[in-house]
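Illustration 12: Oxygenase MpaB family protein.
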Amino acid sequence: MGRYEVRDRIAALDPAADHLEIYQLSSGREFPWDYTRALEFALFRTYCVPSISKLLAATGEFRDRPQRRYDDTALLMGEMAAHGYDSARGRDALKVVNRAHGRYAISNDDMLYVLSTFVYDPIDWLTRYGWRPLHEHERLAAFYYYREVGSRMGIRDIPNSYSGFLAFKRDYESRNFVYSATNREIGTYTVDLFAGWFPRPLRPAVRLGVRGMLDDRMLRAFGFEPAPHWVGVLAAAGLRARARALRFFPPRRESVLGRSKNNRTYPGYPSGHEPSDLGAPPPPDDLPAEFRRSSRQNQGDIDMP
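Figure caption equivalent — predicted structure in token form:
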């Protein structure tokens, strides 16, 4: 197999009709490590929004079980991507996601924004750090894939075009990325989670490195002190060096989507586990009323399917 055989296969597919296959090839075989890192930062980015971070702080899940929340999200999204959103496992994963979101009063715009980060943040990451340039079909397929996922989550008013959804994302961030104490709280829990994956002596360097990867708007929204300039430069240089080295590697022969044998919460996943095993517990009894989903929906809230 040639190094660019998968890319050439993607180029021969239709990004609208074949979006699932393209997304599986791109995220599962061409760039699995990059998609994982990019989606971590995509979720991190959503915590810059006070309405999102305030709800997360109120549930207490990021304070008490940050690793499980991370693992649940990664595995549920992986199930949909690996098997397809309309497969048996994909539908089960969607049920878990919809049940979790359906317990809370979440605006449609907030859900739409989180969905947009899953499309565009990996594209931004791969544009900077991918071992090869993304094919246009990969960009469009990501949009079509998440548009279908979003519709099955009951998210309304998903733009019909790649450029329209990107414009929504940029406008949303310009209006909603502002500092709040809960942004800082959830952001700190997340940085600590990332650092906890490394031996204790390395954790201060990891925390510094994460701050070095954040843009100015995110730093302001979290209230984090910027890392020294050299930290970001060194991190970017390391990622670009990795990308150059990967050009000489043989292509991955099998997809890694849906596999997570080293998962910290669910060892050996998916062996012995089903998507229904995942997901957050019910809301705490002391959850403020403003976050509870009422039986009568307010305009702008999501109608779960």
